Amino acid sequence: MSMPLRDPLTDLPPPCADAPRFGPSPRRATRQVRVGGIAVGGDAPVVVQSMTNTDTADVASTTKQVADLWRAGSELVRVTVNTPEAAAAVPRIVEKLAMMNVHVPIIGDFHYNGHQLLAGEPACAQALAKYRINPGNVGFGKKRDTQFAQLIEFAMQYDKPVRIGANWGSLDQALAAQLMDENHARAEPWDAGRVLREALIRSALDSADRAVALGLPADRIILSAKVSGVQELIAVYRELATRGTYALHLGLTEAGIGSKGIVASSAALAVLLQEGIGDTIRISLTPDPGASRTQEVIVAQELLQTLGLRAFTPMVTACPGCGRTTSEFFQELAKSVQEHVRDKMPTWKITHPGAENLTLAVMGCVVNGPGESRHANIGISLPGTGEAPAAPVFIDGEKAKTLRGDNIAQEFVAMIDDYVESKYGR
C-alpha cells in the first residue's frame, strides 16, 4: 500500500536531535552532469549561472553580454533560442566568445518550437552545451510527446545534457487537470495550492522519466520546478529532493526588481541551500533601466559566499554607521575596498589562488572597530566623532600600523595588495 505524500509546506518533520547545529546540512546526493567543462551536482560546488536579455540574433550585443556575465563570475550562461535567426546566430556567438578567450558553456532556452529550430540549424544543436526544455510548452495535445521526444533525440545525437524546467507560469494544464480530478476522489482532498505544487513536481519528474525511457542517460538530466513565491518554492524543492537523485537547478522565477528581487531570491534559496538542496542557482533579477545584467551574478556569488558554501572574492565587513560615525569616509573606504578587490579578483584568481578567502573589515569608530578588525585578515578602525584622528590597522589579529593624514585610503589598499602578494603570491 503506497504511503500518502507529505506536504513539505505544512507537514514539517520534528527537529532531529543529532542534526548539525552549525553550518549547512550535507549536500543532497545527486548524479553529476557535465555541461561543457562545468560539473553540476555530485561533489561539485554549487554552480552560478545567468541568462542574457539581448536579442540572440544580434550577435554583437549577445556576445558582449555573455562575456560580461562570464567576467562577473557566471559559470553557465543561457540564451533565448526562439527564432531561426537566433538559432543561426548561436554558433557565431560561440565562435566569437572563443576568439575572445571566453570559454563559458552556452545553454539554449527553448519554448514551443525548439524541435524545429534544432532540426533547421544543426550547427546550433552542436554549439550549445545544454538544452533547456519546458514540459509545459514543448507541445500541446497529441504533439507534445512527439515534440518532446524529438528534442531528447537531438540531445542524444549531439551528446548534450538537458534541463527539464517546469514553471509555475506555464504549467502543464492537462496534468494539472488530471491531478485535480484525482484529488476530488480523495477521502481528504488537498487544497488547490498543494495539488498545483504536485503538478509542477510531477511535470518535471515524469518528463525526466520519459527522457530516460527514450534513451537519455539520467546523468545528463537536470531538473527545475520554479515558482514566484518564496514558501511555495521551498515546499516544491523539499519534496522534489526526496523523489530522486537528479541534479537540481534553483531559482525563484519572476523574483522582481531591485531589493525586492534580491531579498525574495535570497530568502528562498538560502533555506534550500542550507538544507543541502541545490546544485546550480540563478538569481532572476529584473534590472533597473540601463543597469548591468551582471548584478544577478554578484548576488548569487555573495549568497553562496555568505552561506559559507563557496568563496569568490574577498568580502568586506563594514559597520552601518550611527551618530558616532558622522564622517562618510568609512562608507567611501568600504565601497572602494570592495570594488578594488572585486576588480583585482580575475587576475588574483590566476596569479594568487586562495585570495578569494581573504576577509576584510572597515569600521567607523572605536566601539566595535578594533574587535571586528582583529577578526578579519586585515581590518581598519577609522576614527569616529570626537576620537583622535588615527586609524589602527590590524593584520591577522595583531595591530600592525596606525595610519594618519590624507592618504589613509591609498595606504590601506596598498597594505591589502601587499598582504595578498605575501600570502597568496606564487
UniProtKB/TrEMBL annotation:
[4Fe-4S] cluster binds at residues 319, 322, 365, 372. Residues 30-300 form the IspG TIM-barrel domain. Its EC number is 1.17.7.3. Its cofactor is [4Fe-4S] cluster. It catalyses: (2E)-4-hydroxy-3-methylbut-2-enyl diphosphate + oxidized [flavodoxin] + H2O + 2 H(+) = 2-C-methyl-D-erythritol 2,4-cyclic diphosphate + reduced [flavodoxin]. Converts 2C-methyl-D-erythritol 2,4-cyclodiphosphate (ME-2,4cPP) into 1-hydroxy-2-methyl-2-(E)-butenyl 4-diphosphate. Residues 316-417 form the IspG C-terminal domain. InterPro entries: Dihydropteroate_synth-like_sf, IspG_bac, IspG_bac-typ, IspG_C, IspG_TIM, NO2/SO3_Rdtase_4Fe4S_sf. HAMAP family: IspG (MF_00159). This is 4-hydroxy-3-methylbut-2-en-1-yl diphosphate synthase (flavodoxin). The keyword Iron applies. Pathway: Isoprenoid biosynthesis; isopentenyl diphosphate biosynthesis via DXP pathway; isopentenyl diphosphate from 1-deoxy-D-xylulose 5-phosphate: step 5/6. It comes from the Bacteria. Residues 1-28 are annotated as: Disordered. Belongs to the IspG family. It is an enzyme of class 1 (oxidoreductase). Keywords: 4Fe-4S, Iron, Iron-sulfur, Isoprene biosynthesis, Metal-binding, Oxidoreductase. It comes from Lysobacter helvus. Binds 1 [4Fe-4S] cluster.
